[in-house]
Amino acid sequence: MSQRNIFNFTSTETDIYDFLMSHKDEVIKSNLRNLAKTIHVSPASVLRCIKKMGFNSFYELKFDFRNKLQAIQVYCQSDHLIDISRDFFNRPLLDQYQNTITDIKNVIENSKMVFFFGIGTSGILAEYGSRQFANFGINSFYNKDPYYPFQLIEKDISSTVMIVLSVSGETHEVIKQITSLKNLKCKIISITNTSYSSMVAKLSDINLSYNIGEEVFPDEINATSQIPVIFLLELLARELKKK
User: What angle, rounded to 10 degrees, do the helices at 78-89 and 227-242 form?
Assistant: First the structure.
């Protein structure tokens, strides 16, 4: 949904917008007059808000909402997740990642500290990865702040390894942080969905990619399964513990 005019909303239009976005099922089933009555505004106010959202009519808004909800229902089917997981774990994973994991072990074993970094869902998994490494006696921390001022650090951190998590590998804030860290001679290891079209992967010293179908919900919500990421984080922690 276009939000190009969202900053031009009046306070009433902001209330209408919040209601529309949080009651999509009700919007789909309602007509304009009843919906306006529910929100306690005039039908004309609802229509003005809808047009500022980028739609020509109430029916166009309903059509957009219906299509997006149907897309989410398809993605949310449990069979879909099982198929993705089965496809990933049916691969010869140890053979696929053996050489890369050996390279990662060599880099980490020659470092003093491991930092995990990610934002959004990847930030939550960065925290998880850091804890997994700590559970296996590896000195590790995490950072989920996309605006952390790495560029202001003057100390040489060439003995630090940053493990960056990014589904798309194209997030601007992540790329900017990696660039700052590379300028500090920090080693970069990335875990992304793909390597061939990922800027994060290309900027990294080592990349692990899991290559599963990307799932992006309406409104640019990336819901790509992170089951492979959890597996790779735990695999790395256990492989490092072997040493």
Answer: 30
| pLDDT above 90 as % of the chain | 40
φ, ψ at 216 (rounded to 5°)? -115, 115
Tokens 């980490």 label which residue?
A: 108
> Burial, 5: exposed, middle or buried (Cβ in 10 Å; 0-12, 13-18, 19+)?
middle
pTM, whole model, 2 decimals?
Answer: 0.68
DSSP tag of 63: H
User: Which residue is listed with tokens 């994973």?
Assistant: 93
Q: Strand, coil or helix: what is 120?
A: coil
* Rounded CA separation 98/108 (Å): 15
What rounded mean pLDDT belongs to the chain?
A: 86
DSSP per residue over 47-93, as a string? HHHHHHTT-SSHHHHHHHHHHHHHHHHHHT-HHHHHHHHHHHHTS-H
Distance (Å, rounded) from C-alpha 229 to C-alpha 7?
37
User: Which helix (H) or strand (E) segment is 175 a member of?
Assistant: helix 172-183
- Number of Cβ within 10 Å of residue 22's Cβ equals 9
Amino acid at 101: I
Judged by DSSP in three states, 1 sits in coil
The token duo for 59 is 């029916």
Q: Residues 222-235: pLDDT tens digits?
A: 778 899 999 999 99
